[in-house]
């Protein structure tokens, strides 16, 4: 067997074209969607992701502001800025690029953003809404994964979805969104014993651990759908996933590559959340 490759980059382009039309309609009604991104410090990867967000915004017609702060910025200064943006009626989405410098408490910052402008979907209020089946801003990477599965009409209901990784940004919420689609969800993590047993029974396998080639094809169930969330830069400067692509592709029915897989969907879903927020203001 050789899996079909699901390119998030292609789906992203389609969705962004649809969003472009949607934004044009919103503008006719007198509202210009605005996304304000805060970048603290000068981490090169974060800078590149922020640039990607600005580029996507420009393409779709979303107004984007970038506020760059030095790595010395105090937590209080950052919280004050967020309060100002919360109170600015022209700002529909606020995003603080993560990770933050060590002296700033990420959770406090996330909780300072108004849930109504939390286009990352990280605020506990939005996480709570997601967990109780309400419509809200869903976290972008997990939501992008669901869209990728749906784009290929991959059945989720009744399937055994195994999520490897339990981060607040990806692992935990993707499990919740799969549950919402009626999958039977198992979480695996660094303390899981005999992880191979879980991998071997996964119809849908989501790998989000941030370790290059954490799994290969050995234990993957024939015909499984393999979603690789890892974006790992390795010694030769190239990007690689958490899954060893060549051997996994031989076992899977569908697989996502790295790059051009899940990554681009993160930014596209952010655009969708920003549009949703602007529409709430019509
Ligand atoms: N506030 C947030 N911070 C972070 C998030 C987030 O969703 N919100 N996610 C990641 C970084 N991220 C977006 O911010 C992100 C990661 C990867 C990609 C992507 O398109 N990756 C490409 C490869 C890009 C490259 O060449 O480096 C791919 O996989 O094809 C987009 C966005 C952590 N922080």
TrEMBL record:
InterPro entries: Aminoacid_DH-like_N_sf, NAD(P)-bd_dom_sf, THF_DH/CycHdrlase, THF_DH/CycHdrlase_cat_dom, THF_DH/CycHdrlase_CS, THF_DH/CycHdrlase_NAD-bd_dom
Name of the gene: folD
Ranges for domain Tetrahydrofolate dehydrogenase/cyclohydrolase catalytic: 6-120
Binding site for NADP(+): 165-167, 231
Organism, scientific name: Gracilibacillus halotolerans
EC code: 1.5.1.5, 3.5.4.9
Family, per entry: Belongs to the tetrahydrofolate dehydrogenase/cyclohydrolase family.
The name this protein goes by in its record: Bifunctional protein FolD
General function of this protein: Catalyzes the oxidation of 5,10-methylenetetrahydrofolate to 5,10-methenyltetrahydrofolate and then the hydrolysis of 5,10-methenyltetrahydrofolate to 10-formyltetrahydrofolate.
Nucleotide-binding recorded as keyword: no
Tetrahydrofolate dehydrogenase/cyclohydrolase NAD(P)-binding domain boundaries: 139-281
Pathway(s) of this molecule: One-carbon metabolism; tetrahydrofolate interconversion
Keywords, comma-separated and alphabetical: Amino-acid biosynthesis, Histidine biosynthesis, Hydrolase, Methionine biosynthesis, Multifunctional enzyme, NADP, One-carbon metabolism, Oxidoreductase, Purine biosynthesis
Domain of life: Bacteria
One cellular component term from this protein's GO annotations in UniProt: cytosol
Gene Ontology BP, a term: methionine biosynthetic process
GO molecular function list: methenyltetrahydrofolate cyclohydrolase activity; methylenetetrahydrofolate dehydrogenase (NADP+) activity
Subunit structure: Homodimer.
Catalyzed reactions per annotation: (6R)-5,10-methenyltetrahydrofolate + H2O = (6R)-10-formyltetrahydrofolate + H(+); (6R)-5,10-methylene-5,6,7,8-tetrahydrofolate + NADP(+) = (6R)-5,10-methenyltetrahydrofolate + NADPH
């Amino acid at each position: 067997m050789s899996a079909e490759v699901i390119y998030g980059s292609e789906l992203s382009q389609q969705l962004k074209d649809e969003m472009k039309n949607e934004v044009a309609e919103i503008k006719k009604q007198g509202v210009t969607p605005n996304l304000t991104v805060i970048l603290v410090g000068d981490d090169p990867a974060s800078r590149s992701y922020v640039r990607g967000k600005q580029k996507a915004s420009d393409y779709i017609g979303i107004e984007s502001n970038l506020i760059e702060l030095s790595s010395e910025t105090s937590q209080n200064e950052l919280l004050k800025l967020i309060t100002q943006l919360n109170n600015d009626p022209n700002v529909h989405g606020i995003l603080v690029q993560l990770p933050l410098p060590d002296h700033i408490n990420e959770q406090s910052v996330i909780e300072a953003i108004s849930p109504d402008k939390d286009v990352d979907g990280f605020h506990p209020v939005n996480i709570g809404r997601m967990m109780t089946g309400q419509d809200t801003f869903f976290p972008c990477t997990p939501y992008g994964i669901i869209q990728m599965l749906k784009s290929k009409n991959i059945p989720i209901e009744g399937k055994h979805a195994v999520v490897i990784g339990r981060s607040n940004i990806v692992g935990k919420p993707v499990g919740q969104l799969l549950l919402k689609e009626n999958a039977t969800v198992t979480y695996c993590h660094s303390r899981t014993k005999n992880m191979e047993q879980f991998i071997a029974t996964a119809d849908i396998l989501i790998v989000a651990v941030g370790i290059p080639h954490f799994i290969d094809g050995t234990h993957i169930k024939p015909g499984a759908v393999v979603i690789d969330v890892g974006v790992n830069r390795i010694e030769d400067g190239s990007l690689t996933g958490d899954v060893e692509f060549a051997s996994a592709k031989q076992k899977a029915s569908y697989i996502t590559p790295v790059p051009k897989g899940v990554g681009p969907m993160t930014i596209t879903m952010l655009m969708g959340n920003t549009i949703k927020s602007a529409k709430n203001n019509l």
